[in-house]
Design brief:
Layout (H helix, E strand, L loop, with lengths): L1 H16 L5 E4 L15 H9 L7 H11 L4 E4 L6 H13 L12 E4 L3 H14 L8 E4 L5 H8 L5 E4 L1 H9 L10 E4 L2 H6 L3 H9 L6 E6 L4 H10 L4 E4 L10 E7 L3 H12 L6 E5 L3 H13 L4 E4 L5 H12 L5 E4 L12 E6 L6 H8 L9 E7 L4 H11 L24 H4 L45 H4 L18
Parallel strand pairs: 1-8, 2-7, 2-8, 3-5, 3-6, 4-5, 6-7, 9-14, 10-12, 10-13, 11-12, 13-14
Length: 491
């Protein structure tokens, strides 16, 4: 009896210690749960049944009931887990009932970091709300005509999907009325923070009603996200359906060490000639590299297109349409394409340049292996990529085994190429401080020694290229020097 009372007291102490504003929900898949059990409107059920949705994913199972109940929500879900439907189905369910406040302004606002993701959300919303009467979806994105957007905003709007920068422009010009807004959705919140949109997001939220329902979806829920949520959400429920270490069981990951640009190009050409490759995305570090590489591949006879932030919205939409229709076999892209592209026929993802952040690696390779299919992810790495590789392996919890193509073996030998942890440690050198070093030797304790000039990194532009303008210099790859790489603009 004494031990029972002690256990009860400990449990009570633990529960009291949890902050009152946050409730933790651990998602799990229940085989007997269907969309009909989630209290969605019959018109929505009809539409998703036509799309072939038979059973909700874990994020949908847990998020939809909480959102229909009216709670604010923080949710962590990796790409490809069905999170768009997780917030858009309950949003459409809300629209099935008449608005409490009259007007033409939006009842639902969805903020996304990139144009591609915004268009994907808009397209999915149109499909989900196919049988709901008079649901008007409008996209406000950078690169689109202001005249067209002004015309759309002057009409009745139910759901507004926007990138933060362009939406701020319209708000400052007084073209949007948020008086009847009921729900604010922050999609890919971690990406918006990485791209510097935090002030824009908070500014936009300040123009919306305080009684709104707020949803935050992110690949990770870290301390930075928690701070934003504390300012924008009210007593949110918290759902976490995926850990930061994505399993990626259906994606075969390969690694090829490279010596120089010529070696890298020869490896790429070999991979692209693979008959099993149906469609591929090749990721580069900069916009300039994407254009140059696409031109080189086109000259070699490949059906290829480029996608990056400097392209107009019309060009980007045309390129993505060709990719989805199968008229492009290869897409060369920057990280602007790492999220928001869902094409089932992409069999290969090739990291021509490794990403700056380990999280972006997961989003890049997540473009293949969609909807349960298998995929192949290939990464090129030089001797200076060892730190990036370690970060990626630590983040995914998986070791990427180096591969060799006969006849294209690298001259570079990675220092930590063995599987055992002991061999991965750098060799320890014992130095005697009382040793006299000759003038021709370099003391390990003399940090002012003159080093031989380092060879320029291989790539399409070198650090000493003075012909480049400032805009291009800000976007150069940091793979072979210490130049800082800035995030792709989302709008």
């Amino acid at each position: 009896m004494f031990y029972f009372a002690l256990a009860a007291l400990a449990a009570h102490t633990f529960l009291v210690s949890i902050p009152a504003r946050v409730f933790f929900i651990y998602a799990h898949q229940e085989n007997n749960v269907s969309f009909e059990n989630l209290n969605l409107h019959p018109a929505i059920i009809k539409a998703i049944n036509e799309l072939g949705y038979t059973q909700p994913t874990p994020i949908q199972q847990q998020a939809i009931p909480e959102l229909i109940a009216g709670h604010d929500l923080m949710a962590s879900a990796q790409t490809g887990t069905g999170k768009t439907a997780a917030f858009m189905l309950p949003a459409l369910n809300r629209l099935a009932t008449p608005a409490k406040i009259p007007g033409r302004g939006p009842r639902i606002l969805v903020l996304t970091p990139t144009r591609e993701l915004a268009l994907q959300v808009s397209d999915a919303t149109t499909k989900y709300g196919k049988y709901l009467s008079r649901v008007k979806v409008v996209s406000i994105l950078g690169g689109m005509s202001y005249l067209l957007q002004n015309k759309l905003l002057s009409q009745h709007v139910d759901i507004l999907v926007a990138t933060p920068g362009r939406l701020i422009d319209h708000i400052q010009r007084g073209r949007i009325d948020f008086s009847r807004l009921e729900m604010l959705v922050l999609d890919e919140a971690d990406r918006m923070l990485d791209m510097g949109f935090v002030q824009d997001v908070e500014s936009i939220a300040s123009f919306t009603p305080a009684h709104r329902q707020t949803l935050l979806f992110s690949a990770t829920l870290d301390s930075t996200i928690d701070k934003i949520a504390a300012r924008l959400l009210r007593s949110p429920k918290r759902i976490q359906v995926a850990t930061q270490r994505a399993k990626l069981e259906n994606i075969e990951q390969r690694l090829h060490y490279v010596d120089d640009l010529s070696h890298k190009n020869r490896l790429l050409e070999h991979l692209l000639r693979d008959q099993t490759l149906k469609q591929a995305i090749v990721f580069t570090a900069t916009k300039r590299d994407a254009d140059d590489l696409a031109d080189d591949l086109a000259a070699q006879g490949h059906v290829v297109g480029a996608l990056h932030g400097d392209m107009s919205q019309r060009e980007r939409t045309r390129t993505l349409t060709k990719l989805r229709n199968g008229r492009l076999r290869i897409l060369v892209a920057t990280d602007v394409a790492a999220r928001g592209i869902d094409v089932a026929d992409i069999t290969h993802v090739i990291n021509f340049d490794l990403p700056k952040f380990a999280e972006d690696y997961v989003h890049r390779i997540g473009r293949t292996g969609r909807a349960g299919a298998s995929g192949i992810a290939v990464s090129f790495a030089s001797g200076k990529d060892s730190i990036s590789l370690k970060r990626i392996e630590r983040f995914t919890g998986q070791r990427i085994t180096p591969s060799i193509i006969p006849g294209m073996e690298p001259k570079y030998k990675p220092r930590f190429g063995q599987n055992d942890e002991k061999s991965r440690r750098p060799p320890q050198v014992a130095h005697k401080r009382n040793r006299a070093w000759s003038p021709n030797e370099r003391s390990p304790f003399n940090h002012t020694d003159t080093k031989k000039s380092q060879p320029a990194r291989f790539g399409r532009s070198t650090p000493n290229d003075n012909t480049d303008n400032r805009k291009r210099s800000l976007g150069r790859s940091s793979q072979f020097n210490n130049t800082r790489v800035y995030a792709e603009p989302g709008n």
